[in-house]
Inverse folding.
C-alpha cells in the first residue's frame, strides 16, 4: 500500500472555512449514511409512517385556524387563512427542528464522537438533511390541498425545494453556534425551546403581518424568519414578495452566522469531548 | 523505514472539578464575570476552585516506524487511554503535535453507532461508514463480514432482537475487515464468548503480521507480549520505558528490579560467600546456551551458576530458588552429596519446557551444606527472566486472560463416559 495521506494533529485546528467544506465533502458518504439512519429510524416502527409528516403541520393548522378565524376572527385578506398558516407552519416546523435537533446533536451523538474521528461539522448537518424530506412532503401536501380547494398555486412552486435548502442552511448556521455551546453549557439546550417559542410569535407564521402596527412593520418584516416564511408563501401561493432589503439582509446574516459558527465550532471541537 | 506515527512533545491537561461534573453552568460563568466587574478577584468562584488542573500526559515523544506493531501499556490512570484518544484524533493535545503518515483506522469500541432498530445488514453499512470504509468497500466485503460473524441467518432482523453476543460478533466482523495503513486498537478484544475471542485474536495476529502499523493499547501483558514486538510503558502520564515487549514486561512486573539474565563479579572481594565457597557468576540460558532474558513457554530454561571452592572436604550442594512475583515457585538442588575438592565448578539446571507459567521469574542462587545445614551464600535476587506464553497454545483452551499460579505443567488427564 502506498499512500500520501499525512495528517498532523495539533492543539488547535488551523483549518479554514474552505478546508471545512472540503472535509465535509470528503465525508459525504458517512453523512448520507447518518441521514439515512435518521430517516429510517424515525418512521421504522410508526404504523402510519410518512403520513405523520403531513399530519403534523395539518393538525397545527387546524388548531390555529380554529383559534384565529373562528374565535378571534382576525381580518384575513387575499388568501384563505388555512393555506397561509399551513405554509408558515411547514417552514417553521422545519426550521425549529433543524435548530433544536442540530443544536442538541453533539450531545445526542456523544457516544459516536468519543469513539470515532471524523469531521464533527457533519453532525449538526444530519438534521437539516433528514428533516428536509419531511419539509418537502409538507409543501407537496400544501400544493395538493390548494389545488383541491381551487386556490391559486404559483408555477414558481417548483422553487420550493430551493427555499427549503436555504431555510436548512440558515438553521444549520445557527446549530453551529448552539451545538458546541450546548455541549459545554447545558443551559443552552434548556433555554432553547422558550427562545424558539418567542421567535415564532415574533414572526408572521400563524397571523398575518397586517396585524402588526404599521409604524414598526418594516422592521418586523426584516426578521429573517419572516423573510423565510414569506418567501415560501410567495413562491408557492403567489403572495407578495418579501422586500429586497429583507432578502439581502437575510443572505448577509446567513453568511455571517455560517462563517462565525464554523469558526466557533472549529475552536471548540478539539476539546469538546473532554467536557461533554 | 519510514515513520508512520510521530508524537512530538504531547501533553494533555484536564480540569478535575469541571470535567467530573460534566459541564459548567452559564450561571457560574456569569457570576465569575460579575465578580471581575465589581473588582473582586477572578477565580474565587466555587466552580473555579473545583477546577483543579492536572496533566494526564506530560511531554510524550516517540516514533513508530511503518509496519511496527506497538503496544501501549500502563496501569489505570497512567494516561494510556488519553494518548490513544489523541492519536485517534478524538481529542486534541494541550501542547505538542502528532503526525500520522497513512490512512488511519480506529477501533476504540466494538459496534460504534449500531442502531437497535436497524437490521444487521443496515448496521453493517452504518458501522462500516462510521469506521471510515466506503460504501463500495463494504459492499465488496459484505459476504465475508457476515460469514465471519456467523449471524447470516439473522442479517435482515433488527439488531435489537439479537443476543448481545450476536451483536458483538457482527460488530467485530465489521471492525476486523477495516483495512487501513495505520490501525489504532483499544482492548476491544476482550469481548464475546471464548470461541469468538480466539477468532478475534487470530484475526488480530493476521493483521499484525500483514506489514501494517498497529498501535494496541492494553493492560494485559500476555496479549501485548504475544501480539506486539515493541512496547511503550506509561506511568503517571510519562513514558517510563520503551523497547522490545518482553523487556518492558519485565519492568512492568518488577518495579525497580536490578537483576537481569546474567550475574558476574569482576573483583574477587565482591563475590558473595565465605572462606569455603564463593559465587563467581550465574546466568539464564536457552537451549542454545545463549544468555537470554525472555524465553518462550515451549522452550527449556537453563539456569547456571559458577562457584569456586576454596577448601577441600566439604559436602556442597548448589541450589536454585525460583519465585514468580514474590510467590515461591520451587527450590531445586543438585542431587549429589559427595565431598568436593578445591576448584571452580559449574552447575546447570534445566527447567523443562511447558512447565512454568508465563511471567517474570526471579532466581535465588545458593550453595549450602546439608548436615549440618550451613548456607554459604544465598543471593536472593540474582537473576531474572521472562517466560512468554503463546496465546494460541492448545492448553489455553481458548482462554486468553492471565492464568493464575506459578507453574502450568501439562498433566495427564483422563476423560471417560461413565454411563
Amino acid at each position: 500500500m502506498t499512500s500520501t495521506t499525512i495528517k498532523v494533529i495539533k492543539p488547535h485546528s488551523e483549518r479554514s472555512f474552505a478546508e471545512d467544506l472540503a472535509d465535509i465533502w470528503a465525508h459525504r458518504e458517512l453523512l448520507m449514511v447518518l441521514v439515512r439512519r435518521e430517516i429510517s429510524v424515525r418512521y421504522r416502527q410508526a404504523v402510519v409512517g410518512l403520513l405523520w409528516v403531513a399530519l403534523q403541520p395539518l393538525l397545527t393548522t387546524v388548531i390555529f385556524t380554529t383559534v384565529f378565524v373562528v374565535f378571534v376572527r382576525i381580518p384575513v385578506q387575499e388568501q384563505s387563512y388555512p393555506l397561509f398558516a399551513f405554509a408558515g407552519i411547514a417552514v417553521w416546523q422545519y426550521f425549529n427542528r433543524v435548530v433544536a435537533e442540530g443544536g442538541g446533536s453533539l450531545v445526542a451523538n456523544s457516544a459516536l464522537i468519543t469513539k470515532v474521528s471524523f469531521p464533527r461539522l457533519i453532525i449538526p448537518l444530519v438534521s437539516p438533511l433528514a428533516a428536509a424530506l419531511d419539509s418537502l412532503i409538507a409543501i407537496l401536501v400544501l400544493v395538493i390541498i390548494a389545488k383541491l380547494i381551487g386556490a391559486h398555486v404559483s408555477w414558481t412552486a417548483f422553487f420550493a425545494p430551493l427555499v427549503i435548502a436555504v431555510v436548512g442552511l440558515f438553521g444549520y448556521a445557527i446549530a453551529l453556534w448552539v451545538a458546541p455551546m450546548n455541549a459545554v453549557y447545558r443551559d443552552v439546550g434548556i433555554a432553547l425551546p422558550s427562545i424558539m417559542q418567542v421567535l415564532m410569535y415574533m414572526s408572521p407564521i400563524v397571523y398575518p403581518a397586517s396585524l402588526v402596527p404599521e409604524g414598526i412593520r418594516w422592521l418586523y418584516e426584516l426578521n429573517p424568519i419572516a423573510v423565510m416564511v414569506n418567501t415560501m408563501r410567495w413562491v408557492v401561493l403567489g403572495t407578495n414578495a418579501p422586500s429586497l432589503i429583507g432578502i439581502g439582509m437575510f443572505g448577509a446574516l446567513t453568511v455571517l452566522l455560517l462563517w462565525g459558527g464554523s469558526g466557533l465550532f472549529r475552536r471548540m471541537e478539539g476539546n469538546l469531548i473532554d467536557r461533554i | 523505514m519510514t515513520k508512520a506515527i510521530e508524537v512530538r512533545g504531547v501533553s494533555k491537561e484536564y480540569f478535575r472539578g469541571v470535567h467530573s461534573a460534566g459541564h459548567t453552568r452559564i450561571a457560574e460563568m456569569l457570576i465569575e464575570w460579575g465578580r471581575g466587574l465589581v473588582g473582586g478577584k477572578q477565580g474565587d468562584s466555587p466552580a473555579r476552585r473545583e477546577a483543579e488542573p492536572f496533566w494526564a500526559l506530560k511531554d510524550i515523544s516517540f516514533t513508530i516506524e511503518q509496519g511496527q506493531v506497538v503496544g501501549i501499556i500502563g496501569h489505570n490512570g497512567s494516561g494510556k487511554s488519553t494518548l490513544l484518544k489523541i492519536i485517534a484524533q478524538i481529542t486534541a493535545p494541550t501542547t505538542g503535535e502528532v503526525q500520522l503518515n497513512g490512512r488511519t483506522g480506529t477501533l476504540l469500541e466494538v459496534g460504534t453507532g449500531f442502531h437497535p432498530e436497524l437490521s444487521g445488514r443496515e448496521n453493517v453499512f452504518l458501522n462500516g461508514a462510521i469506521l471510515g470504509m466506503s460504501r463500495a468497500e463494504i459492499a465488496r466485503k459484505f459476504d465475508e463480514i457476515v460469514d465471519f460473524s456467523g449471524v447470516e441467518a439473522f442479517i435482515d432482523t433488527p439488531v435489537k432482537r439479537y443476543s448481545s453476543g450476536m451483536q458483538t460478533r457482527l460488530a467485530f466482523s465489521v471492525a476486523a475487515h477495516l483495512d487501513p495503513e495505520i490501525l489504532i486498537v483499544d482492548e476491544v478484544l476482550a469481548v464475546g464468548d471464548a470461541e469468538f475471542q480466539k477468532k478475534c485474536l487470530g484475526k488480530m495476529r493476521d493483521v499484525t503480521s500483514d506489514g501494517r502499523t498497529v498501535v494496541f493499547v492494553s493492560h494485559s501483558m500476555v496479549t501485548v507480549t504475544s501480539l506486539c514486538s515493541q512496547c511503550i510503558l506509561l506511568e503517571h502520564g510519562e513514558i517510563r520505558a520503551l523497547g522490545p515487549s518482553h523487556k518492558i514486561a519485565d519492568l512492568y512486573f518488577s518495579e525497580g528490579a536490578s537483576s537481569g539474565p546474567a550475574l558476574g563479579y569482576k573483583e574477587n572481594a565482591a563475590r558473595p560467600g565465605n572462606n569455603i565457597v564463593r559465587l563467581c557468576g550465574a546466568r539464564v540460558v536457552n537451549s542454545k546456551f545463549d544468555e537470554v532474558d525472555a524465553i518462550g513457554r515451549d522452550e527449556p530454561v537453563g539456569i547456571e551458576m559458577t562457584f569456586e571452592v576454596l577448601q577441600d572436604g566439604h559436602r556442597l550442594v548448589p541450589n536454585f530458588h525460583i519465585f514468580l512475583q514474590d510467590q515461591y515457585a520451587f527450590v531445586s538442588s543438585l542431587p549429589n552429596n559427595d565431598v568436593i575438592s578445591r576448584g571452580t565448578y559449574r552447575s546447570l539446571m534445566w527447567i523443562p519446557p511447558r512447565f512454568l507459567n508465563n511471567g517474570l521469574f526471579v532466581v535465588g542462587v545458593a550453595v549450602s551444606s546439608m548436615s549440618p545445614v550451613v548456607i554459604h551464600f544465598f543471593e536472593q535476587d540474582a537473576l531474572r527472566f521472562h517466560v512468554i506464553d503463546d496465546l494460541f497454545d492448545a492448553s489455553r483452551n481458548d482462554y486468553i486472560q492471565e492464568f493464575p499460579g506459578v507453574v502450568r505443567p501439562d498433566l495427564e488427564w483422563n476423560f471417560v463416559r461413565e454411563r
Summary: Chain B has two domains: 3-11+56-254, 262-388.
